[in-house]
UniProtKB/TrEMBL annotation:
<feature type="transmembrane region" description="Helical">
    <location>
        <begin position="117"/>
        <end position="137"/>
    </location>
</feature>
<dbReference type="Pfam" id="PF02592">
    <property type="entry name" value="Vut_1"/>
</dbReference>
<feature type="transmembrane region" description="Helical">
    <location>
        <begin position="172"/>
        <end position="195"/>
    </location>
</feature>
<keyword id="KW-1133">Transmembrane helix</keyword>
<comment type="function">
    <text>Involved in the import of queuosine (Q) precursors, required for Q precursor salvage.</text>
</comment>
<feature type="transmembrane region" description="Helical">
    <location>
        <begin position="29"/>
        <end position="45"/>
    </location>
</feature>
<keyword id="KW-1003">Cell membrane</keyword>
<dbReference type="InterPro" id="IPR003744">
    <property type="entry name" value="YhhQ"/>
</dbReference>
<keyword id="KW-0812">Transmembrane</keyword>
<keyword id="KW-0813">Transport</keyword>
<dbReference type="GO" id="GO:0022857">
    <property type="term" value="F:transmembrane transporter activity"/>
</dbReference>
<comment type="similarity">
    <text>Belongs to the vitamin uptake transporter (VUT/ECF) (TC 2.A.88) family. Q precursor transporter subfamily.</text>
</comment>
<keyword id="KW-0472">Membrane</keyword>
<feature type="transmembrane region" description="Helical">
    <location>
        <begin position="201"/>
        <end position="217"/>
    </location>
</feature>
<feature type="transmembrane region" description="Helical">
    <location>
        <begin position="51"/>
        <end position="72"/>
    </location>
</feature>
<feature type="transmembrane region" description="Helical">
    <location>
        <begin position="84"/>
        <end position="105"/>
    </location>
</feature>
<dbReference type="GO" id="GO:0005886">
    <property type="term" value="C:plasma membrane"/>
</dbReference>
Amino acid sequence: MNEILWFVMLVVNFALITIAYRWWGKTGLYVWVAIAAIIANVQVIKTVSLFWMAATLGNIVYATSFLATDILSENHGKKEARKAVYIGFFSLISVTVIMQIALAFEPHPSDFSQEHLSVVFGLLPRIALASLAAYWCSQLHDVWAYDFWKKRFPEKRHIWIRNNASTMISQLIDTAVFTVIAFAGVFSAGVWWQIFWSTYILKWVVAVLDTPFIYLARKMKDDGKIRDLVP
């Protein structure tokens, strides 16, 4: 059942990011990167069994942030892709700070949510630190690498090369940095390695499957079908 839900989530994420770009252009992708940064760092708290491996949720939505920055790099340039990365940083920092202040409030005797919010957001500072470090290293590498490969394979038919060559190394960096900071000492070594490899493999699968969507985004841009809120 988890595997079916994983593919459903994959399709939903790809559909939403395509709609966001179609309707709002660059702005839609900036919004999506912010959404992905926040949701992924909430979902990652939940550990599930996927394809006979221990895995954390959040892999799909986080991996689509690489798709968003690759679309920006492809259609709008490296500067716009970097801007999306900075927006993701700011979004995650903002949520972390605001939720820590919210948790510090003394709850009313009738309150029923404090305990549940503490479970979800009480762990967020460590998760946020891990995510920010991983985000900084991997996303900026991805933007640099996409531009690097685009200069060497500039033809439209070679989008798949620059998309996958940049993303797969970037996601390896992201997975290594994130899992060490977030989960070292939290899980046993065996579970930690399962989470590391399952996280990277699942992100790798998402990177392969998102390739048609970057071609679609390029075609929509070339056909003038993108409604950008910001010229």
